[in-house]
Amino acid sequence: MSRDRVSGLFWLAVALFAAAQGLSLKLGSLHRPGPGFFPFWGGVVLGLLSIVLVVRSPAGNAPGGARLRLDNAKPVVAIGAVLGYLLLLEVLGFVAVTFLFLLLLFRLERRSWTFSAVSAGAGAGGSYVLFQLWLKTQLPTGPLGF
Amino acid sequence: MEIFGGVLYGFQVALQPTNLLYCFIGVFIGTLVGVLPGLGPAAAIALLLPSTFAASPVAAIIMLAGIYYGAMYGGSTTSILVNIPGEAASVVTCLDGHVMARQGRAGAALGIAAFGSFIAGTLSVIALTFLAPFLARVTLRFGPPEYFALMTLGLTLLTFFARESTVKALMMAAVGLLCGTVGQDTISGRFRFAFGIRTLEDGLGLVPVIMGLFGISEVLLNLEQREQQREMFAPPTTGLLPTRQDWRDSAVPILRGSVLGFFLGILPGAGAIIASFASYAVEKRASRHPERFGAGAIEAWPARRRPTTPPPAARSFPC
Q1: Is B5 among the domain residues?
Q2: Is B185 contained in some domain?
């Protein structure tokens, strides 16, 4: 499938979901819009536009290489790392999670272990000093107290 | 004529060496904090407010104004160099500023951003000095219908930004609208799309969304490309001063952007963001080479940098 068609179908699903949620929240009227007014009509507009995108995009083997390919796993790993970062942030604390996250990203770029460890340490430690110590932002702390 | 007396007295106070020093310190740390992604002018002022406690009231206000301007300018640095806007109003700076950096002209981009900010900031302060009483009356009359019209204008301007597909641009406008509905409904107080998650009940912040969108997409793009395809920047040390040609290209846009940014920037709320986008659209319309927009056109991008600066001055009075 061409890329446009895949993203069109994806956004169509999002639109249907939003419109259904909007309906269940009460639409209200044009003069007194209810909580579901914007989700519903936003969903309708998005749905119609995604149908246009799906219909207009060339089917099957589109020339020009605008095709979805999954031969490169790096982006998937990176997105997984971002999600893992969010989930672990409150558990392990800012410094530890940031260090692991940066280490993974550097390794993903095929840097050496030494370079990755030093840069990740500098990144995590530097952010800690800058945000926690200097600007007094409250970062999530881990079991070790930082 | 009493206004001139006031202006002269103001200069007499502001030009004292101590106050100038406070101003310099304010701009300096404001720029440093503004460069950090996600910390816009408002956050910078909030964070650095304690540092002014020791100063006299006048010096403190001068320093805060310096912090505001510095943070505003600092936000454009990350936009140009790494394509991650530091705050909402510098999104437009990313469009052409970063492309210029990729072409090895990061120095000129940074330079024109600084000069443009300075020119527009100065002009807006002068205008504000004389027009403030009149503008305050107009701003108070700006009600819901006017804001609605302004938002509609903002969404309409999207068609100017679409470089490849209008359908996709409009789709993303609808997605943005849906993202805006996350959280508590302002009228009925009901939660929408919160799914019982505490963080979502607050709604999606504009700055985190923008930074994630630009930042993560930049990371993913870099990961997808093979090593050798990746573009490297020529170091920006090749002169921060824009060339004479750059000045010729950007002089009129800077002036136009100043005027537009001044009037739109007065509006509380989304003033600065709308102003920067509107100014970009106006320049694209007025340009004889609209196809260069988005491809590193210098006149495009200082134009959109300008309007982000007037608001500090214009902002300080409605509240």
Answers
A1: no
A2: yes
Query: What ipTM did this prediction achieve?
Result: 0.71
Note the pLDDT tens digit of each residue in A53-69.
Answer: 888 876 554 444 444 45
d(CA A56, CA A73): 29
Q: Count of CB contacts below 8 A, A vs B?
A: 72
Does B91 map to a domain?
A: yes
- The length of chain B, given as a count of residues: 319
The count of domains in chain B is 1
Question: Measured between beta carbons, which residues in chain A are less than 8 angstroms from residue B181?
Answer: 38-39, 42
- Could A56 and B175 be called an inter-chain contact, meaning their C-beta atoms sit closer than 8 Å? no
CB-nearest to A42 from B36, B165, B177 is: B177
Distance of alpha carbon B91 from alpha carbon B277, whole angstroms: 9
Assess if residue B142 is contained within a domain: yes
Write the pLDDT tens digit of every residue in B84-119. Answer: 766 666 666 666 666 676 666 667 777 777 777 777
| B192/A49 Cβ within 8 A | no
Other CB atoms closer than 10 Å to residue A84's CB: what's the count?
Answer: 14
Residues of A in contact with B217 (CB under 8 A): none
Task: Provide the CB-side half-sphere exposure for A91 (13 A, CA).
Answer: 6
